[in-house]
């Protein structure tokens, strides 16, 4: 009897899954020696990469940025397939949204803040994060560095010298030390209504905290582990978006695969594996724990069909794994070992959603451009403050910015994280338009303070004052993402939560059955392999992290069979 070719099945056709499939399929001799299939529960490839169009512009509903072009495999592919140029406008194509100098900072009520009011807090926040990430070297007389150092020491002292610190508590401690250093009190500010200097600085600081929430996906920075910040790595050089869309990278990876290899609409219900198979040497056959027809893993699909495999690369999101390790889930049969489930449970996985807003002129103005809508950084009162604008909805209050996706675009973008991101998914378009419009009015309408005429107002646009008629735009259409409630993802990306560590990311990457020091089990090796951004210790939460993880698991199998891997 001729031995069957080893069969490898990859669950998920996102960045990690298609990178693994591309690497395996193009390896020397692979097509003649192995069987390969990619099963995807959704109706498209790409996973958390999803390029679309809105208002005539190309936009990203999922992954948006190449986080550093230096050493990035994503950038290399984009260059090779000439995806970095396009005649169609695309999201953040001019880099303006990444230039702090372009932003106008406005406090709730329509009070524009000048740079001297914003820069000290901006510098403080950046210094605190750079210190946490190990990027700073102390310079003589650097008061901000000293504040960061004192903040970290104060946090560890609270914990008895043990380094269990959250990013949120460290940042807040830093702000308190800053206020003490500046001898900041509750003095008012002329021309800023009910804002005091301390309230303004707290508001600006919270805007940066809320931006950090979207970077990390942590709903509350008090749940974000401090120690892991120094392990996280970005690729070097500038961050850019992809002109032809992130999906072009996915399509390039998939282009080498023959038709039918990627099977859409194949949602896995259960993964049945054999962690404790023990057989005698005479029964080992081809080394898979049984006869030549035996394959140790069986996939059960939602449509009732099944598929057997020798090796399965699991690339589903951490959110899906978190749901899958619950006792009543039955996603894995038998359940995963405790070292794996504990790592899955301890790591963080949050929700980040994007909201695109299409602007239209309030009057019939052919050729209208939207240069007068600012790149807006919003400084809100706290949600429980009696000074807040009561009609601004709570789900807008942790949104740090609203800006055109490139200069003169009629499409605006805002980012949401955590509870606010989930609420955004549940709202009707009309509710979003109403809430956003109220918010815009609160920030871009400045009270005239003329007695007897409290409703009159002027509009701030890019630091200038003009009439509302001249501003002349309204929100007419919205497009928002739904990553939190999508059952194929259940969130956006991973972070290292307090109580977790980089070691848990390594545990996520360990294949099963686990190789013990005694080596007593003869269960078929490498039945379950794990890839995806949440399995990379230093590049988690990124597409290049997902790419590296897919490459890692493909090479693990190639090396297992003594094929050539890179």
Automatic annotation (TrEMBL):
Its cofactor is FAD. Residues 15-558 form the Amine oxidase domain. One of its GO terms (molecular function) is polyamine oxidase activity. Keywords: Cytoplasm, FAD, Flavoprotein, Oxidoreductase. One of its GO terms (cellular component) is cytoplasm. It is found in: Cytoplasm. It comes from the Eukaryota. InterPro entries: Amino_oxidase (IPR002937), FAD/NAD-bd_sf (IPR036188), Flavin_monoamine_oxidase (IPR050281). Belongs to the flavin monoamine oxidase family. This is FAD/NAD(P)-binding domain containing protein. It comes from Parasponia andersonii (Sponia andersonii). The lineage of its organism: Eukaryota, Viridiplantae, Streptophyta, Embryophyta, Tracheophyta.
């Amino acid at each position: 009897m001729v031995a069957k070719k080893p069969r490898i099945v990859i669950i998920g056709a996102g960045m990690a899954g298609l990178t693994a499939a591309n690497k395996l399929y193009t390896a020397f001799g692979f097509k003649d020696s192995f069987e390969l299939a990619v099963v995807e529960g959704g109706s498209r490839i790409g996973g958390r990469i999803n390029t679309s169009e809105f208002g005539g512009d190309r936009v990203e509903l999922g992954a948006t940025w190449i986080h550093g072009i230096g050493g990035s495999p994503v950038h290399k592919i984009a260059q090779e397939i000439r995806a970095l140029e396009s005649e169609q406008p695309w999201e953040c194509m001019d880099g303006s949204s990444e230039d702090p100098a372009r932003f106008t900072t406005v406090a709730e009520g329509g009070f524009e803040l000048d740079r001297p009011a914003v820069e000290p807090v901006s510098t403080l926040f950046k210094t605190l994060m750079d210190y946490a990430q190990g990027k700073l070297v102390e310079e003589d007389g650097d008061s901000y560095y000293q504040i960061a150092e004192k903040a970290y020491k104060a946090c560890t002292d609270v914990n008895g010298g043990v380094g269990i610190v959250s990013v949120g508590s460290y940042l807040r401690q830093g702000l308190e030390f800053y206020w003490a250093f500046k001898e900041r009190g509750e003095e008012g500010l002329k021309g800023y209504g009910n804002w005091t200097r301390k309230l303004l600085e707290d508001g600006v600081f919270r805007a940066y905290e809320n931006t950090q929430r979207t970077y990390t996906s942590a709903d509350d920075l008090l749940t974000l582990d401090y120690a892991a910040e120094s392990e996280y790595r970005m690729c070097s050089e500038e961050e850019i978006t992809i002109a032809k869309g992130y999906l072009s990278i996915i399509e390039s990876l998939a282009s080498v695969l023959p038709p039918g290899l990627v099977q859409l609409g194949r949602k896995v219900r259960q993964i049945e594996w054999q962690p404790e198979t023990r057989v005698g040497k005479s029964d080992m056959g081809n080394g898979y724990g049984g006869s030549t027809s035996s394959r140790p893993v069986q996939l059960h699909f939602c449509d009732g069909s099944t598929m057997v495999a020798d090796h399965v690369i699991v690339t589903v999101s951490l959110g899906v794994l978190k749901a899958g390790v619950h006792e009543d889930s039955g996603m894995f049969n038998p359940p995963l070992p405790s070292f794996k489930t504990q790592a899955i449970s301890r790591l963080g996985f949050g929700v980040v959603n994007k909201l695109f807003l299409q602007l239209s002129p309030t009057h019939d103005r052919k050729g209208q451009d939207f240069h007068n809508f600012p790149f807006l950084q919003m400084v809100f009162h706290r949600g429980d403050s009696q000074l807040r604008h009561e009609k601004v909805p709570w789900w807008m209050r942790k949104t740090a910015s609203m800006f055109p996706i490139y200069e003169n675009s009629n499409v605006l973008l805002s980012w949401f994280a955590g509870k606010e991101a989930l609420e955004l998914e549940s709202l009707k378009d009309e509710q979003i338009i109403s809430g956003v419009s109220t918010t815009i009015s609160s920030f871009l309408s400045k009270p005239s303070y003329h007695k007897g005429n409290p409703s009159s107002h002027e509009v701030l646009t890019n630091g200038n004052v003009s009439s509302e008629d001249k501003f002349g735009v309204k929100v007419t259409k919205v497009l928002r993402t739904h990553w939190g409630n999508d059952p194929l993802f259940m969130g956006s990306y991973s972070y290292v939560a307090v109580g977790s560590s980089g070691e848990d990311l390594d545990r996520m990457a360990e294949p099963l059955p686990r190789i013990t020091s005694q080596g007593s089990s003869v269960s078929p090796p490498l039945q379950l392999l794990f890839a995806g951004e949440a399995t990379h210790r230093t590049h988690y939460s990124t597409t290049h992290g997902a790419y590296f993880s897919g490459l890692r698991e493909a090479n693990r199998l190639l090396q297992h069979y003594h094929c050539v891997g890179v």
